[in-house]
Write a structure and sequence with these properties.
This protein is mainly beta and 652 residues long. Helix content is 14%, strand content 40%. Among the domains are: 63 residues; 132 residues, no CATH class; 33 residues, no CATH class; 102 residues, Tumour Suppressor Smad4 (Sandwich), CATH 2.60.200.
Length: 652
């Protein structure tokens, strides 16, 4: 134990020093976090899992250890769009569909003609068999059924082609009677369909004004052909989002103009992006706050919102950064001297691309997160999904950067073509090496939330510091080994003495128990378990008192073990995770990994060691994430969070 703790201590020193160095550098370089090998074809990868296809064309799933968690027996398989919140795959066998979690458990049985998966923060999915729609909660338990074929809009609203129902199978309203069906405008694809979106506790839908209606909608002299209706949970109308006469470029000349406002996107639980169309003008966009009943200024375009912010082009086509209410939050012009803006070529708008005037290989990126241009220039920039960017430097080498400006894959590890063929998800990047028969899959974790560094040091200086620190650590390790050899005999002698002392104490305690009145009863016996020893009364079938007090206690605060106390002996390892076969404490949280962490109690230090094995992390109360695969010492009284705040334990 002492030897392993000594090695763990060295690892912690190395990890702490390297993390500290990386925190003062302006660019974070990361090596691949783990590798997996497979003979099958790699189809997709996300959240430390890989969808593969065997030679028979069947699909399966392997985890970060290369273990087959779902056998290759399905005709199709795919990840959800949001792999940061959800841990499941959509599968198809023959003409039937379903949903499985990462251990192969059915969340939605593979027996339906079509399904609606868990999306947009919903905890309900649906399976449709042509007659009924069956609802499933996030643990795969059937939560009800609706007669007909319905899609999940939210946990409470379900939409068919004809009407909207709630989770009690009650019809809220029909689309036709409420003018919510798109008319046939010649496009064909959306004709006769209703467009509904969940906005927090509300539902928003496009409303179409009937031609020739006596109560034809208007805004001053401007007629309205379409607008957005907001509905409460009970289906009653809450608000109407209509164009206003002042929205026209020339609000003095609105006669014979036709205006429309349509549902474009959801911004937050109380705001939405509305597309405005006025005859004779280019389309524009506004943000509507449902609770405040207010509109934002007019924008020519609004990009993707990331952490509550988005790029936007105002009515003068100047670049701005706005918040979820549509308010401009940048203090100065978002331009780069000598460079021209390439707004439409900027992917999903975590960055805006700028090109040096008169050049074709000199590019800069303006960051949404920092509100500033990155200091580096690039020879080439390629935008990928989930806000990743492939960047090429002047040496012709390529790397991958996440939306926070951190390098997930350093320059030169792979060529451009290999990086372009990679798999990009919310929390990781997967690169496949196909040069051998056993394909090697490299996973790179991407932490999207990092605190900004106070100091900025050139990378060359960082490299020199790293080399110096490694040499110092090597010297320290050598001295520690020599000291360890000199003390080995002394340690072994101390262990022998300690074992003799413990044996004497055990015999003394046994003698005391033999003299105890409760021990003499024939219906009482001592129960020895891997957690503690207990005195059991067989006549009453209950536990009467502990035979000895365990040295440590893991107390559940939130999650499956909330309110429970689990004793832990010195040196005992308590494994926590979702897998039933590999853990002492089995949890059900979707943010927990199959093998999430190991907790060990140290009687010598009167504290604990916690080793993080997971992809979603172990965190302390102040938000600090523990280093991965390192025994981290923690004092008694520490609270740890597994994946998120919904699963936590106190190390008492």
């Amino acid at each position: 134990m002492e030897e392993s703790m000594r090695k763990a201590g060295v690892k912690r020193v190395v990890a702490a020093v390297l993390v500290g160095i990386l925190m003062i550098s302006d660019t974070v370089f990361a090596s691949d976090d783990y590798q997996v090998q497979t003979k099958n074809t790699v189809v997709d990868a996300a959240d430390a899992h890989v969808i593969v296809q065997d030679t028979a064309g069947k699909y399966g799933l392997i985890d970060q250890d290369g273990e087959e968690v779902i056998a290759c027996e399905y005709d199709n398989m795919s990840f959800p769009e949001d792999t940061e919140e959800y841990d499941y795959v959509i599968v198809q066998k023959g003409d039937k569909q379903g949903i499985l979690d990462y251990e192969g458990k059915e969340l939605v049985a593979v027996r339906y003609d079509s399904i609606t998966p868990y999306v947009d923060g919903n905890t309900v999915a649906a399976g449709r068999d042509g007659v009924w729609t069956y609802l499933y909660d996030e643990k795969g338990k059937e939560a009800g059924r609706l007669e007909g074929q319905y899609e999940v809009v939210s946990d409470y609203f379900f939409k068919s082609d004809a009407d909207l129902k709630n989770d009690k199978d009650k019809q809220i309203f029909t689309f036709a009677e409420n003018n919510l069906l798109s008319p046939d405008d010649g496009n064909g694809e959306d004709a006769g369909k209703a467009h509904c979106l969940k906005i927090g506790k509300y539902i928003a839908a496009d409303y179409y004004v009937s031609e020739g209606a006596e109560d034809k909608e208007s805004a001053g002299d401007m007629s309205i052909s379409r607008y957005v209706k907001i509905f409460d949970r009970d289906g009653s109308g809450y608000a109407d989002v209509k164009p206003e006469e002042s929205w026209a470029d020339d609000d003095e000349q609105t006669e014979n103009l036709t205006a429309a406002a349509s549902l474009e996107d959801v911004i937050s639980d109380h705001s939405l992006k509305v597309r405005v169309q006025i005859s004779g003008e280019k389309d524009s966009y506004r943000i509507y706050d449902i609770e405040k009943a207010t509109y934002s200024e007019k924008y020519r375009d609004i990009g993707t919102f990331i952490d509550g912010k988005a790029f936007a082009l105002d009515k003068n086509k100047d670049l701005q950064i706005i918040d979820e209410s549509g308010k401009t939050i940048n203090d100065e012009s978002l331009n780069i001297d000598g460079y021209s803006r390439k707004y439409d070529e900027s992917g999903d708008k975590a960055y805006i691309l700028f090109k040096k005037k008169g050049e074709n290989t000199d590019w800069k990126l303006f960051s949404l997160k920092t509100g500033q241009a990155l200091p580096e220039t690039y020879e080439e920039v390629i935008f990928k999904e989930h806000q990743y960017v492939i960047v090429g430097n002047e040496d012709g080498k390529y790397g991958v950067m996440n939306r926070d400006g951190n390098m997930v894959i350093p320059f030169g590890e792979y060529g451009k073509e290999v990086l372009e063929a990679g798999f990009y998800s919310d929390n990781s990047v997967c690169i496949t090496d196909t040069s051998t028969s056993n394909k090697i899959i490299h996973f790179y974790e991407s932490v999207l939330e990092e605190k900004e560094s106070t100091f900025h040091v050139p990378i060359a200086v960082v490299i020199v510091i790293v080399v110096a620190v490694v040499l110092v650590i090597a010297l320290v390790v050598l001295l520690m080994r020599r000291t360890h050899r000199r003390k080995e005999e002394e340690r072994m002698e101390q262990e022998r003495r300690e074992q003799a002392r413990q044996e004497a104490e055990r015999r003394k305690r046994q003698n005391q128990q033999n003299r105890s009145p409760i021990y003499g009863r024939e219906n009482v016996r001592i129960i020895h378990s891997d957690r503690a020893d207990y005195v059991m009364d067989k006549s009453e079938g209950r536990q009467t008192r502990p035979a000895f007090q365990s040295s440590g206690i893991i107390r559940g605060l939130r999650g499956d073990y909330a309110g429970r106390e689990i004793p832990i002996r010195p040196g005992q390892k308590i494994r926590i995770g979702r897998s039933h076969g590999d853990n002492d404490l089995v949890v059900s949280s979707i943010k927990a990994s199959r093998r999430h962490c190991i907790v060990t109690y140290s009687e010598d230090q009167k504290g604990y060691f916690v080793k993080d094995l997971s992809s979603n992390g172990v965190y302390l109360a102040q938000g600090t994430r523990l280093p991965k695969n390192v025994d981290v010492p923690l004092p008694a009284g520490t609270v740890i969070f597994l994946g998120n705040e919904q699963l936590s334990f106190e190390l008492k």
